[in-house]
Amino acid sequence: MKLDFTAERVLAVVAHPDDVELLCAGTLARARADGASVAMCTMCRGNRGLAAGESANERSFGVSEVRQAEFAAAAELLGAEVFAGGIGDGELEDAPDQRRVLISILRRFRPTLVLAHAPNDYHADHRAASQLADAASWFACSAGHVTGEPPLQRPPAVWLMDTVDMHGFTPGFYIDVTEYVPLKRDMLACHKSQLERAGDSDFAPLEELMFRQARVRGAQAGVDAAEAFRIHAAWKRVYAW
Ligand SMILES: [Zn+2]
Predict the structure, then answer these.
(1) In which residue ranges of the chain is pLDDT below 50?
(2) For residue 194, what pLDDT is reported?
(3) Distance 143 CA to ligand 1 centre (A)
(4) Which CATH class is domain 9-231?
(5) How far is the CA of 214 from the centre of ligand 1 (A)?
């Protein structure tokens, strides 16, 4: 059996500019190859992604801009549209103003499927992005939430992505991304500012983390590389494929 993404519109809602590569880039690439329209939205600006020893004052001139450019370059390799929530790193929360930002993005792209962080992922911004994606993808259908764009006809399906390093996440299903591992690597290579942090004691080498996770999830599913997801199972949120 092979899932077919033809004519779907898939939007990945992530917390930070470099989260897509690790958790869902292969799935987006597969969707794109099937003919789906794909998009990536980073809710945070990446303004606090500093290397060890750098102070915010030294680098505040451009961290956010550098990381947004890296995000855009990675999206271009994938053929994905980009959206940005524009919220500061560490400041993401499920609050009405931030919901409104994402509701507007959802209404502009009009996804049929949203890929969202797992609600128990390691980082507070990831957990907040998960809550925001859940709430906003529901309220985006409600005419009572005014943003200037027409409401969605129906809520998109939501797939919860694997957690970083797979902690506390029981996969519901796996997407075979074996064919797209080189693309994941090339997209990750766009995030030069973060790869330079590989030696920081408080920062894992991203490439190794990405390959290991894809390999482990792949081994569990009997393929070379996979990305794992769970369906967000709730009333009016479940679809049959
Ligand atoms: Zn992140």
Answers:
(1) 58
(2) 84
(3) 31
(4) alpha beta
(5) 17
